[in-house]
Amino acid sequence: MKIGPLSAFYNLSAMMGSDSHYYSIAGFNVRISFKEGGRNSRSLIPSFEPFRVDTPKGDLFFQLKVDDDLKPVPQDERERIRSFDTGNGETIVDELKSGGYQYIIKDINGADCCLLQASKNFSDCHCALNGNYNMRSFGLNNALMLVFAFAGSMHDTLLIHASLVRQNGYGYAFIAKSGTGKSTQVSLWLRYLKGCDLMNDDNPIIRIIDGKPFIYGSPWSGKTPCYRKVKARLGAVTRIDRASANSIEKLSPIEAFASVLPSCSSMKWDSVTFNRICDTITKVVETTGIYTLHCLPNKESAILCNKMISK
pTM, whole model, 2 decimals? Predict the structure, then answer.
């Protein structure tokens, strides 16, 4: 599913009259090109700067060309799949009869921010942006996050909604519905436990490499500006459950799979992609402890959790 040698795309960039930039995210090479003379530039994605590289080595994971002249595919050449609420706005998905997908990404006010068209394996993508700087930045960031998640499905890679703390070389991911307390638990680790640092606070990346699970920082970190090009062995995944007393339990494989799946970006309407994501989650469950922490937001919960799950 890789695009091919980078040298071909350096030449393509010159022919297309585009401003191209390369990024290394979780060990993958990403190329983002902006049509010259337009309103768009890499200033729309400042969180990507720690990941930018001058001369990447190896093949491209995916490329995205930003060009506001891109037009929607005619209605008779696409089929509406569904629309879904991301929590920050609605995204509308159409399947293209020629293969691939078209997305319309809206912000929380319902305004169209981005038109995205992607190849079937998400290796080759184009988008047009709309609105003011904030709308364009929102649209481009969400398009890139979506493309990364679904391109990753073919490479034993997951984009997971989690808060991630590192201790002694291991990354510990906390998952939960927004507002339930995953960031609070991580903040307790940072405050009360030795040797901890924050890797990401919203969307870290999990990869299975040679049968082993690793977790990475990413350019997407929610409201916390933590955009770090860092990597660690995955130590555990823990779901936060608010409770009146602190306790923790290790989940069975079936329970663990059911706990992790809702936190991973997926496309249930595309059976190939969804099955690959499920396969990767299964590999995580087979190699990593998955827990549920029933807790209060206090120091004692962090100490209990750390004692149970840390390596």
Answer: 0.92
